[in-house]
Amino acid sequence: MKANVAVDNTTGIFLWNDPTVSVTARVDALIDAMTLQEKIAQLYGVWVGASDQGGEVAPHQHDMEEAVDLDALLPNGLGQLTRPFGTVPVDPALGALSLARTQSRIAATNRFGIPALAHDECLAGFAAWGATAYPVPLSWGATFNPDTVRRMAAAIGRDMRAVGVHQGLAPVLDVVRDARWGRVEETIGEDPYLVGTIGTAYVQGLESAGIVATLKHFAGYSASRAGRNLAPSSMGPRERADVLLPPFEMAIREGGARSVMNAYTDTDGMPSAADEDLLTGLLRDTWGFDGTVVADYFAIAFLKTLHGIAADWADAAGTALRAGIDVELPNVKTYGAPLAEAVADGRIPETLVDRALRRTLTQKAMLGLLDPDWSPVPAALDGVDLDDPAALRGRIDLDGPENRALARTIAEEAVVLLSNDGTLPLERPRRIALLGPNADEPSAVLGCYSFPQHIGVRHPGTPLGIELPTLRDTLATEFPDAEITVARGTGIDDGDLSGIREATRVAREADIALVVLGDRAGLFGRGTSGEGCDVDSLLLPGAQQQLLDSLLDLETPVVTVLLAGRPYALGRAVEESAAIVQSFFPGEEGTHAIARVLSGRTDPSGRLPVSVPRGPGSQPATYLGARLAHVSEVSTIDPTPAFAFGHGLSYTRFDWTDLTVDVQEAPTDGEFTLSFTVRNTGERSGTEVVQLYLHDPVASVVQPVQRLVGYTRVELKPGEARRLRATVPADLASFTGRDGRRVVEPGELEVRLAASSADPRLTARVTLTGTERHVDHTRRLHATIGKEPVARA
């Protein structure tokens, strides 16, 4: 043990505790005073569950790890506490007390008084019992509205910070490449610009509340072969650079994210957890990221057990440290005794430990965890008698009215009307047949990382903690004079056909049949969507298509409603359903949102963040494909979607007119400005989502036919118009060239102003002039779109 830890300064406190000294000086002094064991202790977490009685947390026993002895670990300190709220159901106030008491013990037990950094999941809301279950990220993408997502993330962050959490494991910035992948629900969509802008807004909101946002999964997780979870990723460096990396680049540069989590997968034989070029060369040396890189759970051990590139735990630890992973999560495994022994005998240089330690301690210092006035008591428990845990139960509300209102706003903005023959909105139907496995199922609105589906299902006797009205409940409120008859028809994935006859009988006797289909979220095979719930085709699960087809055979109009985690091929319904309403796990207020859209109280304004396939077996497919990826005469497979990326209908009509282009030519470091008018020509207020796509007819390497480079929502009353002025920098035409550098090439371009990737309304043909120009991560990333009112016609 190093003898001198009492490095006093003029303030009379240790240098590392002095907030008047630079963070660098504080961290350097602390590292100099630490033993090797104390250093390493800051580089791992311990998975715990808060106590529902307010006592200290208990280590979580996971089947992939050995039991953890906190008494043995804590004298050296502890880097992180893993998921104190997201492991078992616990009243939020008692969980906050449990965490506070544990933090007090951790700080009191180690020589330097350093508490742990507590992290939790927050993919669709704070993953804690009783916390608001917001829509999943795929619904965020469907809003095409970064501002609303930013507000949601700030609310999530405030709730987390109030109970003592410091870091959130979100957002997921993986770009969908194959909709068969089970984690599609966790993504924002199939376009990197949409993912980047919505994801960056989430980061900004979370960070504004003082929570460290964690970008995941870096990089290539969603590009796995055949959509299989944790499978190898098949992509070249150009696809990685132009499709998968830009959202991370944007979220770091513009969002200020302070943490990154590695992907499990390997790309061309190189696991991300071992990729020094990725985690250090690109992330830090090129992009300038100065936060922490944390391991996805068990990822460092996977270097030995799954990837086979490490001989033992010490080898895995050294490989990950060298690549740039600073913190092992969720538990101590390779960064514990194996790492200490390898450093002691010279196999792993201590400088690698110090490099990671400097980053983790810097983050703790910036969070105030090294300050002399740091308190383990979180804001939500300020001024409360902590000696009476029973009195605390129910004191903290993580699902208040403001949260629920925000959750409903996002859910409403995310509902996508795919088709409509005029049946919607429903006008005072007398008899409604409400059919299908999700018609009266409370959990049908939840994704797999919501607390009830992620943790609550393993505690069946525990109340949900939040209100989850079913669609039956909300329709009864929305249509109080209607007679609503419910028939399940079939289960989500049980293949049971026995209830279809009853469903068709109920539908025959109704004025309208609402058939509510989709997914059940779960983990590793416990659901039809979610982590480890991959599929081999995009057929609706179970016998749902048979139910749907039986209803389409009737004369009763059928409105198909989808509560799902991925897009599905809908067969005959694409042409024969009276209307199709798509919602991607819209959260606890989701059924209210759907009911309001069905009644017309809310005009649908969501747009597809992922294409809806026409057939179940055309994956992988995405609108973001080169010419050879689209339909051709030399293949019998047609990947053309039934409903394209960006598609969505309204209950009103919009005209796009009067396109003008200020300058037809601009240099490769210039910009184009164009203007056009969007007018609501219908009889209802509505929102048009204007999308800008770039088409490059001739390039030095193969390009997607088009790609999204900008978008905006335009809310218009009947007869109202806006004049939109879009400025498109030449930098947006850049791509990774033949030499691996990003380049803007001279030549002709098309700027397509579109209602979806398949529905261009206006096209501006422009030309870039001059010489080709190389750009880097400091390039301009956005088009700007201004909106001015226009006099009514």
TrEMBL record:
Keywords tagged on the record: Hydrolase
Q: Does the keyword Nucleotidyltransferase apply?
A: no
User: Please, which domain of life does this record's source organism belong to?
Assistant: Bacteria
List, for all copies, the residue spans of the domain called Fibronectin type III-like. Answer: 688-757
**A Pfam match:** Glyco_hydro_3
Which SUPFAM superfamilies does the entry mention?
A: (Trans)glycosidases, Beta-D-glucan exohydrolase, C-terminal domain
Q: Can you name one GO molecular function term for this protein?
A: hydrolase activity
**Which PANTHER family does the UniProt record give?**
BETA-GLUCOSIDASE
Q: In which family does this protein belong, per the annotation?
A: Belongs to the glycosyl hydrolase 3 family.
What name is this protein filed under?
Glycosyl hydrolase
